[in-house]
Amino acid sequence: MAVDLPxxxxxxxxxxxxxxxxxxxxxxSRSFSTDTSAIILNKAAAKFMGFEGEAVGEIIYSDDEPxxxxxxxxxxxxQSPYEPVxxxxxxxxxxxENVIVLKLNPDKGIRPALAELKAVxxxxxxxxxxxxxxxxxxxxxxxxxxxxxxxxxxxxxxLAIFVSCLGLFxxxxxxxxxxxxxxxxxxxxxxxxxxxxxxLSKDFVLLVLIALLIATxxxxxxxxxxxxxxxxxxxxSWWIFAVTSAGALAITLLTVSFQSLKAAxxxxxxxxxxx
Length: 275
Description:
By secondary structure, this protein is of the alpha/beta class.
């Protein structure tokens, strides 16, 4: 059966430059002259060809020419992040390529490195325009929509928390004002500050717990559905919801405690003098 798979012509140092991670076999090497008839598969290609387990050593024909598999690399997101990684094969180039992939030295500035590259490029190809682009910029464009969604979601989340805290603060102030005389009577009868704080805070904590019981399964459902559109994604863990719930409770207690402690520390004489 003939199958048309993307074939990439690369040099010996291509894998080292882009950071190949091998699950089987080895990279191209100048120590092996037979590597001119060797290929490297990504995992998607090995799976597509039905190589279960060890794929190294298998023979594949391209244009009636045999190639031996010497390695299998982990899949890399090269094209769209919204689609599964395509099955791809890599073989050594047998001529001059139009594109050169370079990895800049992190200890050297970008401008000096580009200037040196231009000097080398124009020396060997003076009639060809010197053009370059960064792979990081290409990936940034691919994931730009997700980054914008993340920033917008963060901004709206902060605004929602701020508005919620304002509402809790106002409601706590109202409740404390309504129960001022009750608090005074309880203090006269020997109630501690901690017990009064718990009395005024427990109703708010209960409401937040009910809200979390409703919001947690709904948020898990919608987040899981959103992540499923990506072939390669992170998994939702229980600790994310645990930390979020703990944070919501902490913010609630911090917001309510100010008014609760203020009412609990009030001199009961002032709240009961009109009685």
